[in-house]
Amino acid sequence: MIMKNTFHRKERLGRRNLIKQLFDEGSTFHKAPFRVTWMFHTLASPTPVQVLIPVSKRIFPKPVHRNLIRRRIREAFRQNKHPLYESLQTQHRQFLISIHYTAKEILPYKTVQEIIILILQRLREENEKVTK
Predict the structure, then answer these.
(1) Which residues fall within 8 angstroms of residue 66, CB to CB, at 6 or more apart?
(2) Residues 53, 126: Cα–Cα separation, whole Å
């Protein structure tokens, strides 16, 4: 199955009750400078993953900087999501994910991409653990 390198609106996590449930019941791990919270969930949407990308307003008071960080994370996720999506689709599962940026400085895109790749590999491994 051919997947497009896109990040649709349906892939964004925006419903308050799902966000609350994710933070109340989800599992968390750290991969500096990110804190990732995730959980399996049955979604009404056809996408296997919904993602939330929070950036602290206290650490980055200027919206320009917060948006830059979010764009870098979203782009890295968009380009490297396919192995995770394929793994989830074969198992007929869906994820809710929050990738919270915790660094106090803006990292270059290359660094963000490398770490996002590691995060997506870890999430794929978590999905495969449940299968076994």
Answers:
(1) 55, 57, 60
(2) 20
Q: Model confidence over 63-76: pLDDT tens digits? A: 999 999 999 999 99
60 with 14: CB under 8 angstroms?
A: no
| Number of independent structural domains in the chain | 1
pTM: 0.90
What residues make up the domain containing 34?
Answer: 9-131
Q: How far is CA 61 from CA 34, 56, 117, in A?
A: 18, 8, 27
* CATH classification at residue 86: 3.30.230.10
Q: What is the DSSP string of the chain?
A: ----S---GGGB---HHHHHHHHHH-EEEEETTEEEEEEE---SSSSSEEEE--B-TTT--SHHHHHHHHHHHHHHHHHH-HHHHHHHHHHT--EEEEEEE--SSPPPHHHHHHHHHHHHHHHHHHHHHHH-
**Tens digits of per-residue pLDDT, 7-41?**
878 889 989 999 999 999 999 999 999 999 999 98
